[in-house]
């Protein structure tokens, strides 16, 4: 499998389409670690599994997100009182999922719930300042996701090793700049990357583009799982990987829209 910038899709189990059923599911490998053999009769993953698990995960995020945003907009809770614990707990759960290296439906759904709490708090904050921005961000995220799925399915852009390296490098570069800007802001230094200026708008557009291209790697990783015939339970892992990119994209689109709506 090609390398991916999404940590959720690294060290996936390997299978073999030409292997026998027992050999194919004998014991998935995890970069030097060997997972426990699956139970007899476990069926291979399908595209329907990935779609269903991803939709379920997204639904949980949206439900908790709407509740969280509603509480903020009605004044029942402060946005940071919901966003902070949602972000921290969601991050912890995501690290557990990644380092656990085995799919877990309860953990993925718990991650989705806390991410919804976080996103809802942040969304409620921005919606209070710029009415209508939430739906614009949701539609924008959905539009980018569908567009990249069409691009991937039609083969308009092929996921080659060279493109993969470019996306990973761009993602790492963006992450470093975002982290550096955060650290500088603690010392009162304005780098101009997140202040709503022209530079900030351009940077946000670039980050959105990078996040969008990460979907291509996510789709390819999920497709590789299907081609390799890994057990169906790994659809939860694919759902988790796609959700991490969706969360990143949504937050960046929300930030860009807030820049554009400022006077």
TrEMBL record:
InterPro entries: BaxI_1-like. It comes from the Bacteria. Pfam families: BaxI_1 (PF12811). Keywords: Membrane, Transmembrane, Transmembrane helix. The chain crosses the membrane at residues 50-73, 79-99, 106-126, 132-151, 163-187, 199-222, 234-251. This is Putative YccA/Bax inhibitor family protein.
């Amino acid at each position: 499998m090609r390398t991916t910038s999404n940590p959720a899709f690294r060290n996936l189990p390997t299978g073999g389409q030409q292997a026998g059923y027992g050999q194919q599911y004998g014991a998935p490998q995890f970069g030097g670690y060997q997972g426990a053999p699956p139970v007899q009769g476990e069926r291979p993953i399908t595209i329907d599994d990935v779609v269903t698990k991803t939709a379920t995960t997204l639904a949980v995020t949206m439900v908790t997100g709407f509740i969280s945003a509603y509480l903020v907009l009605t004044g029942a809770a402060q946005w940071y009182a919901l966003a902070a614990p949602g972000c921290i707990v969601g991050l912890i759960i995501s690290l557990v999922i990644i380092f656990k290296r085995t799919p877990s439906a309860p953990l993925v759904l718990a991650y989705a719930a806390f991410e919804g709490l976080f996103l809802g708090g942040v969304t409620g904050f921005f919606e209070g300042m710029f009415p209508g921005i939430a739906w614009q961000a949701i539609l924008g995220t959905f539009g980018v996701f569908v567009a990249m799925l069409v691009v991937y399915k039609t083969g308009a852009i092929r996921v080659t090793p060279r493109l993969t390296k470019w996306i990973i490098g761009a993602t790492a570069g963006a992450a470093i700049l975002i982290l550096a800007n955060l650290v500088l802001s603690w010392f009162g230094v304005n780098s101009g990357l997140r202040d709503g200026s022209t530079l900030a708008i351009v940077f946000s557009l670039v980050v959105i583009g990078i996040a969008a291209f990460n979907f291509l790697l996510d789709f390819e990783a999920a497709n590789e799982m299907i081609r390799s015939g890994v057990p169906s339970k790994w659809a939860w892992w694919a759902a988790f990987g796609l959700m991490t990119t969706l969360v990143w994209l949504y937050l960046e689109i929300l930030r860009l829209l807030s820049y554009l709506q400022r006077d």
